[in-house]
Request: fold
Amino acid sequence: MLADLLQFTFLRHTFLTGLLVGIIAPLLGTFLVVRRLSLLADALSHVTLAGISFGLLLEKTMLVSFLNPLYSGMTFSVIGAILIEKLRHVYKGYQEIGIPIILSGGVGLSVIFIALANGFNNDLFNYLFGSVSAVSQQDFWTIIIMASFIIAVIRIFYKELLTLSFDEEHATVSGIHSKRIHFLFIVLTALVIAVSIRIVGVLLVSALMTLPVASAMRISHSFKQTIVLSIVFAEIAVIVGLISGYYLSIPPGGTIVVVAILILLLSISVKRFSYILSKEG
Amino acid sequence: MQDSVIRLENIGFAYGERQVLKNVHLDIKRGMFMGLVGPNGGGKTTLIKIILGLLKPDNGSIFLLNEPMNEFKDWNRIGFVSQKANTFNKGFPATVYEVVSMGLTAKIGYFKFFKKHHKEKVLEAIRLVDMEKYTYRNIGNLSGGQQQRVFIARALVSEPELLILDEPTVGIDYKNVDRFYELLHELNVKNNLTLLLVTHDTGVMTKYATHVACLNQTLHFHGDSAAYTALTTEQLSKIYGHPVQAIVHNHD
Reply:
């Protein structure tokens, strides 16, 4: 792949995009997991699918190519995030009810848009499972800009996000605008999902946000360490997954997730092993 | 006149039809260690939520640090240790240091970063609660009493003038409860920190608190702890609405 990487621009784009996604997905995923909102990623990825299929439908029927499906996906994802928030307020005491509503709504809309566009095409398949060749020049720049934006916002609001994640009541009482920070957080999540879909695909994006974090949490003591380790694990999964996906002609979504699961199993057994050792020693 | 840290005038609050608080007057002066006691369902936690601005009273007025509630913005001058503090997600990957530094988040403010002098403050707060050995340990692996000390440090790190604690000893074993109250007493005397402690453990105040208030819908007693200790069993039972055994702790 290395020689090919130098030769083909599209591969270089895919690889760099993969590396960026390997940073932002677990970075936001850490907050998502500790707040027990992992399923939010699933709901939002399915809404993003609706947005993407809407974009593909427009492309096909109206021959408008100015609307990149990446943009319509992002828009739908952010709207979905806002709707989940609204539902949380409508059904007080049923914090998670918005998630299945939005998830099924997203799938429902996707089915309708796909049918209107006369069924599956190769593009959609790429969006579902990820692709090593799908990242265009334009996608690439959009993803770089979005990723830099996301990283900057998390850097700026890191202490507020952490304080809110640990203890919402304390955050509110100490004078932090919890609702606004939470809103910012889910909009960021929506954007990360839309951006990551190019590489891992709709169905597996939540895996890249949660699996590396689940592995990191087993070993680390601090929150910062969890973030750093989860990014390391995600990068390993992305790099190994992309290369093996390329050579085996498998969509990288599948290979990346399988590598992430292997890392997870390893981290669980390492912890067990060190526990047994410490008991014997 | 000594300055008031909390002044409540004629507070009333109802959850729907159920009147929880009625005509509550309370004045907490700087330097007091006020123990707020009363039966379960007597409105203690509701009153704390009102003081913290989490609930709006139906009537009455609140003054925090001499400012009316709706104009009060300096929330970092008030520290709060919740009843729920020990029900946090025990698997949360954060160190004692990280948890205590969260106490500075609001004080540092938006768009500003955590700096070196903030780190000093966090370490100092950890020392103050005698937890420096555990600074970089995971919070979930500590005992209930140790965790509660960490939450006190989180509340103290922003250097509040008033510390409010809502049943902070729930889930802490007896031996540690004593040490915990010693710590509060020290903070009250040495650091001149005003304390409002909600508890149903009626024995404790007699030793540590300077003042006691008994709440059961309205305040039935409000005075210094010596006067509270002097209350007869009969009077106490009237306040609680059921027979009460006055427990006096002996720490000798």
Notes: The radius of gyration of chain B is 18 Å. The beta strands of chain B are 4-15, 18-29, 33-37, 59-64, 67-68, 78-81, 162-166, 194-198, 211-216, 218-224. Chain B touches chain A through 37 residues (CB under 8 Å). The mean pLDDT of chain B is 85.
